[in-house]
Design the sequence.
């Protein structure tokens, strides 16, 4: 089993009081332990007791932060989204062409998956085998940011007036599925995975039907 390489949003504790620092540190200890245990046992087989045993904390301390393993799991997702979202958006906003917009999105995502592959694969596996909610507020916000960036690109003439909602969903779906396949390979190559997904989209995007009305681009009635 590969050891996880965790890409987390930085936590600044220097300006916090001792009690607040302890709270932040305990929460991170729990989340780090949960990533490890989920990666080793899978979400379904993991219990709260397993997570607690992987920390130096008492069981009562765990419940000061989380009520269940589902809450821990959702917190892990949100941390990942908070780390990834600015990285993706910064790259997209620099794009001057369709190719740059698409390639920067896929490249940044594939590189992130390769860095934090245990967490990502645990989340994807759980989505397929359980009913745990994977669309946390931070993840949904990331999807919305992508749709908004597509709409801006359309307004700027970067994209033809395609259906932004469908395109967002397609990019998300391909990104996750290609990343899944990449992680099953002995040699993980995020650059090659991103290049494949980019070629697929850039080759086909100009063949997409143009949206006939604003609702098609926004997904609203």
Sequence:
């Amino acid at each position: 089993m590969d050891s996880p390489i965790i890409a987390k949003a930085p936590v600044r504790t220097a300006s916090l009081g001792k009690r607040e620092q302890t709270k932040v540190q305990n929460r991170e200890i729990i989340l780090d332990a949960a990533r490890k245990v989920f990666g080793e046992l899978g979400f379904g087989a993991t219990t709260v007791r397993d997570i607690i045993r992987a920390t130096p904390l008492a069981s009562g301390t765990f419940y000061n932060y989380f009520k269940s393993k589902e809450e821990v799991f959702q917190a892990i997702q949100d941390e990942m989204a908070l780390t990834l979202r600015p990285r993706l958006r910064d790259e997209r906003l620099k794009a001057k062409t369709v190719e740059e917009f698409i390639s920067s999105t896929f490249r940044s995502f594939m590189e992130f998956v390769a860095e934090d592959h245990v967490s990502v694969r645990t989340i994807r596996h759980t989505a397929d085998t359980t009913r745990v909610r994977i669309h946390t507020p931070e993840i949904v916000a990331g999807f919305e940011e992508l749709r908004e960036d597509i709409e801006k690109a359309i307004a700027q003439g970067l994209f033809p007036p395609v259906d932004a909602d469908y395109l967002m969903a397609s990019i998300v779906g391909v990104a996750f599925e290609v990343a899944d396949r990449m992680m099953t390979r002995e040699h993980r190559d995020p650059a090659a995975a991103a290049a494949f997904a980019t070629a697929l989209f850039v080759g086909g995007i100009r063949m997409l039907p143009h949206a006939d009305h604003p609702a098609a681009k926004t997904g609203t009635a």
